[in-house]
Design goal:
The complex is a heterodimer of chains A (224) and B (551). Chain A has 224 residues and is an all-alpha fold. Chain A has one domain. Chain A is built from nine helices and no strands. Chain A has helices at residues 3-23, 32-56, 70-78, 81-93, 98-125, 133-159, 169-178, 182-192, 200-222. Chain A is globular. Chain B has four domains: 1-32, no CATH class; 41-191 and 498-507, no CATH class; 196-483, 3-Layer(aba) Sandwich (Aminopeptidase), CATH 3.40.630; 513-551, no CATH class. In chain B, the strands form three sheets. In chain B, strands 16-15-17-14-12-13-11-18 form an eight-stranded mixed sheet, sandwiched between helices. Chain B has a seven-stranded mixed β-barrel with strand order 1-8-6-5-4-9-20. In chain B, α6 (233-255) packs parallel to α10 (389-410), α6 packs antiparallel against α12 and α8 (328-336) packs across α10 (389-410). The longest helix of chain B is centred in the first third of the chain and has 26 residues, at 6-31. Classes of the chains: A mainly alpha (224), B alpha/beta (551). Chain A: Its main location: membrane. Chain A: Keywords: Cell membrane, Endoplasmic reticulum, Membrane, Transmembrane, Transmembrane helix.
Chain lengths: 224, 551
Amino acid sequence: MTLYHFGNCLALLYAPYHMAYKFSGVSEYATFSKCVYAGGLYIFTQLCKMLLLATFFPDSDIQTSGEYNVFLEILKATVDFADLLGLYFALNAVPGKGHAKILTAAIGWASAEALVSRAVPLWVGARGSEFSWRYVGMCAAANLALVHTAAAAALVWLAGRSDLPRRLAPAHAALLALTPYRAPLEAAAGALLRLPADAPALLLLRAAHAAARALAALAMYAAL
Amino acid sequence: MWLDEADGFAEIFKGYLPYYLLVALPIFIIMSPVNPVAASHEFSVYRMQQYDLHTVPHGCRSSSFNLEGRSLTSWSTSRHCVVARVQDITIDQFMEIRSKAGALLLVLPKNDTVLSPEEKEHIQLLEMAMIQQEVSAPVYFTQWTPEYDDILQDLQHSFITDDKSGTALEAMLNSVSSNGYQIVVSAPTPQKIDSKPVTIHGKLVGRSGSPQTIVIAAHYDSLGVAPDLSYGADSNASGAVAVLELARIFSRLYSSASTRGGPSLLFVLTATGHSLNYFSIKKWLEEHLDSADASLLQDVSFAMCLDSISSSGPLRMHVSKPPKAGGAPHSIKERAGVPFTHKKINLADETLAWHHERFSIRRITAFTLSSLQSHKDPSRSSVLDSYSEASLKNLVSNIGSIARALASHIYNLTDEASSEDRDLYDQALGIEEVSVKHWFKYLSSQSRAPHVITTGSTPLSGVAAALERALSRYMDVTANVHTVDKREPEYTLYSPTRAVVYVYSVKPAVFDLILTVAIVAYLTVIYFAIQFFPKFYEEYAKLVTGKVKVH
């Protein structure tokens, strides 16, 4: 709408990341460089994923008929397992205790994601004369991505631990396996409830999903 | 390894980055395009007429605007663009908008058939009122699309005015929930366009020995409130089609010596009609009467002008002098069985009433045949004047009766005594309905405003070229190109006639403030959530595992 609106969106998008970095205690470990490293890994992982997608799903960009091909979407989401691998490397690169590792990797990873995938659409879209709730929604969704990434990082970190209680192992494996499929899952839930693509209710649904995953991951972390 | 030095790198970020940003951000903002996003709605719009007649300005004088859209009831200042359905706006409202509002965007009805006769008449009267004077604000017309229903609905019911809401909270909620629209038209500033009207005429030579000439004339342009929307079926595609059909009928009769009539027939199609004060016929008469060899218009028996002959109602003969018994007009009147309306030429009026008055001024006996009661009929200058099957039927029957009256006058038949004669007559004067329909449809399927048809790259293009070709199938055709006087132009036309409107949905400025407050509140919640997270984790871990965890 205006530059002011752009500023609003920017604050909504990046301030939570900054606060997460500043006030969670991660910054006290002087781990800015590790965050940058995690961000670099994110970008590298995305490049690898793009190569995979371009090799095995070359027609996915051409298909714009609006037909939602469930099988193809699931296959494409499967490629997101590469994200977990990338997170694993990011976690390994961070020294320190478990929670510091997880938070540093997650913040670096999610910040890079927010910077790379959201800044340009925001710059192009939110500054125009046309007002759309889409950009506010996009910024709010980026905050949820931080929660999701933290949960995923926790799960990946837990996977490398041998002291995870045995009874939790199946639940942990299931959660980890479902991680790449969160976008198709949310789309499916939205379609089931017949929510339009930009409804505030859909955002609430995604927030609930993120909160549930985060709490589950936290419970497993606490169980160590 | 640069990663090992990255803590120093981070220091650089912390120390200098803010200052770089101070320089870089403004540069980014200046460099990037002003309006990077496309509007959610884009429509083509048609600008209202703009022309000067004898240097008296008419119509809309400006073309671009960028204003907030408002409905008929909620607009208040010149910073608003009024958006309304054309059938909803009254003439009084238009006059107020004309003097005070910033711009006007009128949505035409979905199609003509949904309008009641009263609504039609109202729109026609409105058009007349609009065109009468000049309007300084830009006025545009647009075809109906489903999106307009939403936009009009939004503008009507959730307009954002701060004074009309009951409480401050209500105003705030209203501003968040409602949609405003910014309406932008960027068009070139109005410019004079070069107009070169063409008059096409062709002659069927009668029997030698009779030097008399009968002129049959019609203008083929149309007038509507927006040039690109004036399809003008009745006024005056019908007249032009009738001239073509009469030319076809009589060219067949005149082709053999045995059936050739006495007087010569001169068919004339002129490019500018009542909207521009019959300029082309005036020029054409000047050229042919005042030039040295005035052979074409020697001894004109009478001139018959055809204007708007497809609307319902009987034909009527409009004259500026009551027809004398024994005269040629009287003979046509009797043979066609039409009543006559007498109206003196009033030179004080801005425009002449009928086509024939141009002939009458030059002392040529002339009359106009029209199915309209009066020259002031608003349907002559309406965008609603479009093709219909009913008007085609009227047109065919009217051409038939005109052809019959003309033939009976030319061959001087007193009555059609026997049925055998009548059959012969019908056969000779048969109207080709298919060709009439084809031409009527063709002419009324496109805008024929002077802005469009007289400003082609070559004078004889488009409709004029088509008519010329059609007429040249029956006779030798001459096309005269007229030019407007350079120093004292009889009329001036202005472009542009169409543009594109961008409708942006926007929120009021106060909405952004409310959004800021909401975001700050949200961030505060996040801040406290992070602050309280260790405590929450302790409780949560206790709940989940049943033992106290040390963080």
